[in-house]
């Protein structure tokens, strides 16, 4: 009887208890701060933040934005993540949403701005601030226009007529990029569009003016009883984002190629090969973790290095192995920057391919020029002669024992192209050919000794 009474009471009061519990439960709003240049670091902030927001079952994501712009490829990735986020994403522009920041803001469901904030000026520029050629502007125009179109249209009934009006006019978005776009009563030709908060609200590019994120959440989003969770970047995010910067990637490529070049000049495991190995790890590791670099792409790069090593130490001359190695290295470095799966490049745009190729080829070109320049400066007449330490070392190794080698004859213990090993009086020395390519076993004569190496010519 007592059990039956308890069951009846629970049945009567359980709905009230459940409602009381739900009333006390706070809605989770997730905030992501982006208050710096748009780059791969901020892209990681947004990507990781959206994943964390889904894990916490947040009802909304609010981006607290203040940026003058940044990398277009990072902004493109960020706006795509926002458009396809299962959780609605809103943005509060604290002060500036210029260039890439404007593209990211337009992708959000609603835009809120602080009084005095600005949005616009999305022209693609280079490192000096000069506008890029029209093919880059054309791509940006298309991207920002399609982003505005993605928000769709409002259905308005006026005097019995149904009117469909863009929530954000794509032509206005395009005017933020192209100075040739004219919007009557808004912008004339020759000017790139930038909105103030009031102007943006008038033309549909601001959904409300607020002074804080709390005001946005309570006044405009309508969440009174909420819990604010924020994304806290880790040191790993910052390092990973830094290493994925195109400029840093180019520098790493310079070190990789430069290390291989100098190792070819002076065979043997030493500083150049170690520097090249470390640079390769720093180049591929963040790309692999981010899912861009596939296993096979890294293996293509490694195969290229192995082919070049084989060309240096095993196969005489410079032929198929060397050329194939260079192609594999360039292919591995380039394809690791492209988002593909199992050699499927269907989703990769021509712009992405061009950008990846430019990053790799620029790094290789600069590395090649620097390597030749540095090689020409090393020696008794080069820049290192000015360093006292070098002078002392040269004196130390220029002992009578080594000076006595001048004029002696021996054989090439390895291929000299131009560096390798020579056998003089049954002793191995680091040798450099003054007669071009020298085959293994060919007789040579020592003509001078410098920098701990014997310089030889064919007899």
UniProtKB/TrEMBL annotation:
<dbReference type="GO" id="GO:0005886">
    <property type="term" value="C:plasma membrane"/>
</dbReference>
<dbReference type="Pfam" id="PF25145">
    <property type="entry name" value="NfeD1b_N"/>
</dbReference>
<dbReference type="GO" id="GO:0006508">
    <property type="term" value="P:proteolysis"/>
</dbReference>
<dbReference type="InterPro" id="IPR002810">
    <property type="entry name" value="NfeD-like_C"/>
</dbReference>
<dbReference type="InterPro" id="IPR029045">
    <property type="entry name" value="ClpP/crotonase-like_dom_sf"/>
</dbReference>
<protein>
    <submittedName>
        <fullName>Membrane-bound serine protease (ClpP class)</fullName>
    </submittedName>
</protein>
<feature type="transmembrane region" description="Helical">
    <location>
        <begin position="295"/>
        <end position="313"/>
    </location>
</feature>
<dbReference type="Pfam" id="PF01957">
    <property type="entry name" value="NfeD"/>
</dbReference>
<keyword id="KW-0378">Hydrolase</keyword>
<dbReference type="InterPro" id="IPR056738">
    <property type="entry name" value="NfeD1b_N"/>
</dbReference>
<feature type="domain" description="NfeD integral membrane">
    <location>
        <begin position="248"/>
        <end position="372"/>
    </location>
</feature>
<feature type="transmembrane region" description="Helical">
    <location>
        <begin position="269"/>
        <end position="289"/>
    </location>
</feature>
<keyword id="KW-1133">Transmembrane helix</keyword>
<dbReference type="InterPro" id="IPR056739">
    <property type="entry name" value="NfeD_membrane"/>
</dbReference>
<dbReference type="InterPro" id="IPR052165">
    <property type="entry name" value="Membrane_assoc_protease"/>
</dbReference>
<feature type="domain" description="NfeD-like C-terminal">
    <location>
        <begin position="404"/>
        <end position="457"/>
    </location>
</feature>
<keyword id="KW-0645">Protease</keyword>
<keyword id="KW-0812">Transmembrane</keyword>
<feature type="transmembrane region" description="Helical">
    <location>
        <begin position="242"/>
        <end position="262"/>
    </location>
</feature>
<keyword id="KW-0472">Membrane</keyword>
<dbReference type="GO" id="GO:0008233">
    <property type="term" value="F:peptidase activity"/>
</dbReference>
<feature type="domain" description="NfeD1b N-terminal">
    <location>
        <begin position="29"/>
        <end position="228"/>
    </location>
</feature>
<dbReference type="InterPro" id="IPR012340">
    <property type="entry name" value="NA-bd_OB-fold"/>
</dbReference>
<feature type="transmembrane region" description="Helical">
    <location>
        <begin position="358"/>
        <end position="376"/>
    </location>
</feature>
<dbReference type="Pfam" id="PF24961">
    <property type="entry name" value="NfeD_membrane"/>
</dbReference>
């Amino acid at each position: 009887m007592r059990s039956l009474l308890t069951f009846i009471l629970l049945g009567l009061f359980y709905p009230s208890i459940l409602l009381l519990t739900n009333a006390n439960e706070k809605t989770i709003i997730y905030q992501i701060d982006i208050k710096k240049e748009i780059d791969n670091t901020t892209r990681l902030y947004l990507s990781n933040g959206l994943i964390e927001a889904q894990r916490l079952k947040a009802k909304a994501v609010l981006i607290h934005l203040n940026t003058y712009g940044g990398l277009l490829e990072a902004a493109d990735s960020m706006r795509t993540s926002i458009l396809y986020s299962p959780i609605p994403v809103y943005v509060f522009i604290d002060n500036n949403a210029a260039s890439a920041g404007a593209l990211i803001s337009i992708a959000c469901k609603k835009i809120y701005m602080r009084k005095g904030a600005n949005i616009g000026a999305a022209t693609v520029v280079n490192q000096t601030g000069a506008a890029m050629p029209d093919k880059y502007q054309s791509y940006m125009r298309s991207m920002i226009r399609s982003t505005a179109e993605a928000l769709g249209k409002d259905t308005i009934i006026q005097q019995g007529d149904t009117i469909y009006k863009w929530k954000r006019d794509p032509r206005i978005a395009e005017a933020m990029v192209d100075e040739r776009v004219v919007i009557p009563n808004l912008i004339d030709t020759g000017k790139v569009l930038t909105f103030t908060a009031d102007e943006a609200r008038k033309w549909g590019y601001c959904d409300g003016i607020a002074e804080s994120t709390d005001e946005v959440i309570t006044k405009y989003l309508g969440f009174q009883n909420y819990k604010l969770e924020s994304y806290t970047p880790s040191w790993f995010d910052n390092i990973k984002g830094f290493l994925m910067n195109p400029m840093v990637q180019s520098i790493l490529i310079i070190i990789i190629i430069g290390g291989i070049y100098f190792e070819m000049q002076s065979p043997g495991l030493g500083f150049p090969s170690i520097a090249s190995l470390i640079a390769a790890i720093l180049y591929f590791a963040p790309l692999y973790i981010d899912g861009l670099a596939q296993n096979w792409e890294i293996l293509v790069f490694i195969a290229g290095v192995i082919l070049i090593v084989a060309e240096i130490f095993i196969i005489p001359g410079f032929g198929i192995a060397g050329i194939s190695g260079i192609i594999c290295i360039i292919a591995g470095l380039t394809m690791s920057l492209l988002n593909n799966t199992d050699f499927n490049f269907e989703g990769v745009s021509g712009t992405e391919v061009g950008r990846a190729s430019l990053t790799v080829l620029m790094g290789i070109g600069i590395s090649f020029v620097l390597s030749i320049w540095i090689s020409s400066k090393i020696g008794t007449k080069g820049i290192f002669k000015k360093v006292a330490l070098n002078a002392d070392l040269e004196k130390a190794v220029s002992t009578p024992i080594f000076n006595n080698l001048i004029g002696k004859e021996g054989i090439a213990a390895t291929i000299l192209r131009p560096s390798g090993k020579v056998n003089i009086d049954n002793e191995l020395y680091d040798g450099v050919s003054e007669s071009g390519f020298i085959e293994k076993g060919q007789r040579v004569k020592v003509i001078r000794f410098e920098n701990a190496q014997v310089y030889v010519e064919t007899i």
